[in-house]
Model the fold of this input.
Amino acid sequence: MTTTTDQGGEASDDPAIHGSGRKPPSFWILALGSIGVVYGDIGTSPLYALREAVLAATDKTGPITQPIILGVLSLIIWALILVVTAKYVFILLNADNKGEGGTLSLMALSQRVMGSNMVLIPTLAMIGAALFYGDAMITPAISVLSAVEGLKIITPALEPFVLPITLAIIVGLFAVQSRGTASVAALFGPITLVWFVAIALAGLAHISDNPSVLLSFSPHYAVQFLGDHGMIGLVTLGAVFLAVTGAEALYADLGHFGKPPIQLAWIIVVFPALVINYLGQGALLLSNPAAVENPFYLMMPPWALIPMVVLASAATIIASQAVITGAFSLTRQAIQLGLLPRMEIRFTSESNAGQIYLPQINWLVMFGVIVLVLMFKTSGSLASAYGIAVTGTMVVTSMMAIFVIWKYRTWPLWATLAMMLPLLALDVIFLGANSLKVHDGGYVPLGLGAILMLVMWTWRRGTKILFAKTRKLEVPLADLVKSLSKRPPHSVPGTAVFFTSDPESAPTALLHSLKHYKVLHENNIVLTIRTSDLPTVADADKVKLEKLTDQFSRLVVNYGYSESPDIPEAMALARKRGFRFNIMTTSFFLSRRNVQASNHEGMPMWQDKLFIGLARNANNASHYFRLPADRVVEVGSQIMV
Done:
């Protein structure tokens, strides 16, 4: 199944796919890279997760007892085992779309197996994508804040500097995005590996304070805690979820590193380091309950505090970088799949097409992060806003995974449900627990998600209406070609390329050109760009050229949803198959539609205006398709929606 679109796409993150001849990275290099990029977010959770869970379990003022610590630790350990290890590492990593993962990859795969007319699947995908943007704003805010708050432990005199330093780091992080992440990314893996080693050593140093924390490996203590604490237990469960935020990155970044490196990094490095650190924090709290103020930093000896604050700041910057990069990648996939209007995409690396920069998304996310930091001021307050976006995305992922495992992996329905329904139920429980935090800050990601969901739904619906309206104004291409063959207009030298989203219809730009200029180029190409439900399309399958007459050809260019459109490059592929053209004598004709709102049809007036605003602010098509600026002709038309 393919989806016709005039939006464009993106280039694969893996140069090897395109036959660049570069040697692919070794398994160990990929594993090390995954430690930095994939696990940066979940790896910084110990900065705040256990503290918030214990405060929730004690209702912020109650005594810290052994049953509470063992119960909270058991909940965290088993959340890591069930949510991350079982669901993501061993199940979802096998539900890939030709090696690619993530919410929109799962949508494309689900539509392939269930049919594109199933409204539930794109709706779920839009919900998941919208919630991800909330996560992309909250993660940098809470991660950097929690790291810089270590300054208060060094000396209370530094507390007034926490917010300014946090804001400076955030502004600096977003300011350097336009320069690309290649040089920084090379350090991601080693720095994050040092981070995991450091937090594991810190945990080991304190487990001996109270070895009874090792009993928390038994799920008995988790069940007993929830049974004894009622509503407080449910609130605590919402805080416990902070320990698994970032798990979505395992699936989203599948295409960057591959399944085996991600799995190995989790099993031998990340999971052991996280568990050991949480156990160490729990043992510290049992021996010194006053350390609940900040158990992570209070585990450190005085000489290690400053180095640990610096290392934690670096780790949180890496975690933030990973989620910002994820927002860029998600946006261009959403553009390609017709969920968002075209935006400017800049490529920041000559060798790796996966390194991109979207100015509009960058500054919007930065603005959101700054607002969140100024609104909540502390990582503890932000923790209330965190979780809902991630749990919502996880619920969406589990639901779509059921369709994929059942239909694409051809599992029996009963076996699919037996495996996925318990995990989906766990996600729903976590979502319910986090929903209790709506009034404390959870309304932020929900409100942001609702706005983005409305934008995507409006754009998707509006483009469908626009497509239908445009088709009514066009005539079948075969009829036009036949008519022009009988009564040919005056011919001029050169090649004309006319864009259309329907290869069977005559492009509007062609009709207007004939109407106003009354001439026809000696070579005319009707070009359609299609988006496949595969992440990439091989060069051999990328272009399909059909000769209609001596003057007319039809060219269909297929892109994966993870590829960038480059029309001159696609025409060069067609030239290898015998098509002759000279870029210097080729003109590209684009239709520029002046969309007007209508009271009597289509969407409600307010939604019409929203769609028109999105369309007017969309990136110029000639830039998006990488057309030479001096070879583009735009022909206007007015359409009512």
